[in-house]
């Protein structure tokens, strides 16, 4: 992965040091969940990840509000939307998080389960309701407006191939393997592009587009969770990729929920710059083995984690492989 040179520009409070401290937050959640991977208990794995992430967040010098979390207050015991975290000293920030992105993946010990968090200036993250979002994303290095969620999959694939300077057969798309995507999959295959179908974990799918030379993924297409869309947009803000998303509000109940969360235009197409504005910090740690991040590895006297940490102001991407000798602290 290319790591651009870091500049000295930063938002007060959202410092380089805070970005590194976020690694500890996702590491703690990832290790807790990894101890239960392959055990078949999604709820237990998610709960230990939530507990670990919350405990570590409360050590940070921030005044944070969870805007993308485990659900609304009546539905989630911890890290619910609106919960305040941090030690009460420091900048006021919005937080989007998923302590265990891909609970089913972890329970089955399949690839690309992550612990993920994004922090931004207060009021900067889209308060997305827990509904589906139609998404399209590519990584950095392309002219603005290359992709358009309102164009056909074929048009977007061909535009990407032309901009990349390769035949369409050398473009690879990532799509969630769902019955609702049957027509999308057929359309992409008609172009001659390759498809990598994933069972869960569309945050990882979008992040994979940021480094296609490593992940083998050039474009992400399809519908997935809107909260996950905000997390993915936060990552793309840090590396200069492109993403568009539109909420799927196909019932009166969903429309009402979106309105309560401040969504004024239910048909709006959001860019990654609108889903995650201002200065953004992002971190993700692998729980299971993945395309870009190894999962937590347990050894006799230590454990090892792999984490990426990103900053939007400098477009710096740090890759951290950490060996933790004192395993009792996890």
Features:
about 325 residues; alpha+beta; Fructose-1,6-Bisphosphatase, Chain A, domain 1; 2 domains; 8-stranded mixed beta sheet; 6-stranded mixed beta sheet; 10 helices
* Uncertain runs: 1-10
Q: How would you name the CATH homologous superfamily of the largest domain?
A: Fructose-1,6-Bisphosphatase, subunit A, domain 1
Oligomeric form:
single chain
What's the order of the H and E elements?
A: HHEEEHEEHEHEHHEHEHEHEEEE
CATH class category of the largest domain: Alpha Beta
- Taken together, the total number of domains comes to 2
Portion in beta strands: 25-35%
* Coarse structural class: alpha+beta
**What is the overall pLDDT average?**
91
- Portion of residues within helices: 25-40%
* Architecture per CATH nomenclature, i.e. the level-2 architecture of the largest domain: 2-Layer Sandwich
Number of strands: 14
CA-atom Rg in angstroms: 19 Å
- What would you call the shape? globular
At CATH level 3, the topology of the largest domain is: Fructose-1,6-Bisphosphatase, Chain A, domain 1
SSE map:
Elements: H1 16-34, H2 42-57, E1 63-68, E2 84-85, E3 92-101, H3 103-108, E4 114-121, E5 132-138, H4 153-164, E6 172-176, H5 182-191, E7 194-198, H6 202-208, H7 212-215, E8 219-225, H8 226-239, E9 242-247, H9 252-260, E10 269-271, H10 272-275, E11 280-286, E12 297-298, E13 303-311, E14 316-324
Parallel strand pairs: 1-3, 6-7, 6-8
Antiparallel strand pairs: 1-2, 3-4, 4-11, 5-8, 5-9, 9-10, 11-13, 12-13, 13-14
